[in-house]
Specification:
Blueprint lengths: L3 E9 L2 E8 L9 E6 L2 E6 L1 H15 L5 H27 L1
Antiparallel strand pairs: 1-2, 3-4
Helix pairs in contact: 1-2
Length: 94
Amino acid sequence: MPNTMRRKAAFFGSLMITQTMVQPSSWVETGIQMAKVRDRYLFKFTIELQARLDELNQRKKEAELTLDEEAELVGILELDRIFTLLNAKIIAES
């Protein structure tokens, strides 16, 4: 699978669980926008990427995600965490 990386998610005794994720950087060109919120520009998902996140979350609730979709969801959620931290920093410093 392109744009994936392996990382250790958890250890349980001698059992290691690995998780595959789509690299968050794969959405930088097409899934990210800067939006003016009050007097600041913040990072936001495009309508299309937000819709995909919502769709994947719904499929996860219904236990219908494929392995590729799980990797995609993990990558989008990682990007969301990064943007949350960056946006908080932008707000705190202004």
